[in-house]
Amino acid sequence: MEITFLLKAILIAIVEGITEFIPVSSTGHMILVGWAIDFQGKFANMFEVVIQLGAIMAVVVLYWKKIEESVIEFFRFIFTKGKSGKTGFKFGVNVIAASIPMGIVGVLFYDKIKSKFIPEAVIAGFIFGGILLLIIERAYSNKPLKVSSIDNINPMQAITVGILQLLSVWPGMSRSASTIMGGWIAGLTTPIAAEFSFFLAIPAMMGSSLKELFEFDYSIMTPILWVSLVAGFVVAFLVALLVIKKFINYLKKKPMKVFAVYRILAGILLGILVLTKVITLTK
Fold first, then answer.
1. Alpha-carbon radius of gyration of the chain
2. Cβ-based burial of 177 (10 A; exposed 0-12, middle 13-18, buried ≥19)
3. TM segments (predicted)?
4. DSSP letter (8 states) at residue 167
5. Residue, of 15 and 279, whose pLDDT is higher
6. How many beta carbons lie within 10 A of that of residue 59, not counting itself?
7. Which residues lie below 8 Å from residue 124, measured CB to CB, with a gap of 6+?
8. Residues 65-82 pLDDT 10s
9. What is the pLDDT of residue 270?
10. Within 13 A of 43's CA, how many CA atoms are on the CB side?
């Protein structure tokens, strides 16, 4: 029984690692898979938070050099009064600017957003997000995209991405899809929009995750739950590590259409199954 539970946890972690940084909604997929394998409840909700941290650690590892250099240059710019570290300071300002909209919404409305969760919202998010991806990619694919380097993003473009990131509070919408669409609107190439979304994920996901972990009732924890938690974190980290590399390489060669079509079809299928009461999704 304990082995079965551990295997379920590992499967959910694999789903998180695969879907967190591609535009298909990790939340929606974890809910669906969680229903299919009967992995739900208080621990499952907290488990999702922990494995999201595992996935975000993959970004930290892969982009550690950029993160380290930017932090050093950010403070160097301040201490030298602008004489040195301009690139890192600019990048830091962009990440902060893009994170402000989500930060404000998170502080003011996080509990209300969580309490309003319904499965139908996930289904609608899948379909609407897919349609929006198709529309925005088509609208901006024929326009000259001037930003092909993450260091060339300006604050207004960063804020545009940050505003679109707000769509991700809609369950099933996908934070990755929302920020990439914001990048297109701001004039970023798809790979750069995706990479910038990775950096924005660090404050956004860590902020919400730490809040959830602080409020969790740890009295329910048992040895198998702790083992599952650690295993899930590691698996999500390793899977995300592989997916991020392959996702960026994919975006350099091909459009996002395949993800959009997948979202729409998955949303329609899920909607039919829920409406016909073949499945019942809970959170």
1. 19
2. buried
3. 6-31, 43-64, 91-110, 117-136, 185-204, 224-248, 260-280
4. G
5. 15
6. 23
7. 172, 267
8. 999 999 999 999 888 877
9. 83
10. 20
In this predicted structure, the answer to whether residue 130 has a pLDDT above a threshold of 90 is yes
Q: Assess contact for 134 and 260: CB atoms under 8 A.
A: yes
Three-state DSSP state, 170: coil
Contact 125, 172 (CB under 8 A): yes
Q: Round to the nearest angstrom and report the end-to-end CA distance of the chain.
A: 23
Q: What is the pLDDT of residue 117?
A: 60
- One-character DSSP codes across 101-161: HHHHHHHHHHHHHHHT--HHHHHHHHHHHHHHHHHHHHHHHTS---B-SGGG--HHHHHHH
- Backbone torsions φ then ψ of 40, nearest 5 degrees: -140, 170
Token digits of residue 72: 């050093």
DSSP string, 19-84: HTTTTT-HHHHHHHHHHHTT--SHHHHHHHHHHHHHHHHHHHHHTHHHHHHHHHHHHHHHHTTTSS
Q: Which residues touch 258 (CB under 8 Å, ≥6 apart)?
A: none
**3-state SS assignment for residue 188:** strand
Going from the C-alpha of 30 to that of each of 13, 44, 250, 283, the distances in angstroms are 9, 10, 23, 10
User: Tens of pLDDT along 216-241?
Assistant: 777 788 888 899 999 999 999 999 99
Q: What are phi and psi of 158, to 5 degrees?
A: -65, -45
Residue 26, CA distances (Å) to 16, 29, 54, 144 in order: 6, 5, 13, 31
CA 167 to chain centroid, in Å, comes to 12
Triad 175, 113, 194: Cα angle to 5°:
5
> What letter does residue 169 receive in the DSSP assignment?
G
